[in-house]
Amino acid sequence: MNITIIAVGTVKESFYAQAVEEYVKRLKPYAQVKIQEIAEEPRPDKAGEKLVERALEKEAERIRKVLPKGSCVVSLCVEAKQEDSLKFSRHLAEWAEEGGAQITFIIGGSDGLAPEIKALGKKVSFSPMTFPHTLMRVILLEQIYRGFRILHHEPYHK
Known about the structure:
Elements: E1 2-8, H1 14-27, E2 32-38, H2 49-66, E3 72-76, H3 85-98, E4 102-107, H4 115-118, E5 122-124, H5 133-151
Parallel strand pairs: 1-2, 1-4, 3-4, 3-5
Helix pairs in contact: 1-5, 3-5
C-alpha cells in the first residue's frame, strides 16, 4: 500500500520531525509513506476573508499539482465526522481498496483547506479542537500506524 500525506507548510521543530520519522519507520511493514510538503501562501496575521480565500486557492493549485492520480483522497477537516480508532482502521482498509492501494491524506495550513480540495474525496476529523499543522502530521501518522496494528490484530491499540 502507498500512503501520501500532502501537507501545507514545513516542519520546523526538530521534535515534530523526529516523531514523523519514527512513525514513518514504524509504518514500513504496512505501507510506503511519502510526505509531500507544499508552500503555505504568505498572508498577514489579520488577513481579511478575501485574502485568506485567495491564499487557500493558491494552496489548492499546489495541492492539485502533486495529487497522485487514482488515489483515494482524504482531507483532514475539523468539521468532518469524528470517529474512533477502530472505525478509522476500517476506513483505511476501505480507502485502500477504493484507491487501488493508494491513499492520499491532505493537511491544510493555518487557515485549513479550500472548499474545492475538501470536495475531492473523503473527510475525517480527529477533534473539534485546532492543532498546529505540524503536530497534526504526527497525530495522523500515529492513527494510521494504530489502524494498521488493529487491522493486523497486533498488540498496540488499547
